[in-house]
Amino acid sequence: MTQPFGIGDRVRVRDVGAIGHNRTPRYVRGKVGFIERCCGAFPNPEALAYGGDGLPKKHLFRVCFLQKDIWPNYEGTRRDAVEVEIYEHWLQGVEKP
């Protein structure tokens, strides 16, 4: 099973109005961050929640977002960040600027 992203890759979280069980917070949808770590491949919890087997397994990534990129009026330091674990099917690669 090939890992679709590597540490440091820039990714955008898909901005879809998914109904039902999912683990992707709305506040990061459509936002760009970078892969901080690959946590491994696991059965898809969105399929498991509805009685499926969760296969094929999906890679889970810890994605780091600068808080100023999530909340436009954020008044903390430019380096403040939040990390969120997100499954691969929610992520899209982003070209480096």
Task: Give a verbal description of the structure.
With 97 residues, the chain is mostly beta strands. Helices cover 8% and strands 35% of the residues. Strands 4-3-2-1-5 form a five-stranded antiparallel sheet. The longest helix is centred in the middle third of the chain and has 4 residues, at 45-48. The protein starts with 9 loop residues before the first strand and ends with a strand. The model has no long low-confidence stretch (mean pLDDT 92).
Q: How would you summarize the topology of this molecule?
A:
Layout: E1 10-13, E2 32-42, H1 45-48, E3 58-66, H2 67-70, E4 81-87, E5 91-93
Antiparallel strand pairs: 1-2, 1-5, 2-3, 3-4
Query: So what's the CATH class?
Result: Mainly Beta
Main-sheet strand order equals 4-3-2-1-5
Work out the count of structural domains: 1
Secondary structural class: mainly beta
**Rg (CA only):** 14 Å
Largest sheet: 5 strands, antiparallel
The oligomerization state is: single chain
Q: Could you name the CATH topology?
A: SH3 type barrels
User: What's the pLDDT, averaged over the residues?
Assistant: 92
CATH architecture: Roll
What's the SSE pattern?
Answer: EEHEHEE
Percent strand = 35-45%
**Uncertain regions spanning at least 5 consecutive residues:** none
Helical segment tally? Answer: 2
Key phrases:
97 residues; mainly beta; SH3 type barrels; five-stranded antiparallel sheet
Briefly, what is this?
The protein has helices spanning 45-48, 67-70; strands at 10-13, 32-42, 58-66, 81-87, 91-93. It is mostly beta strands.
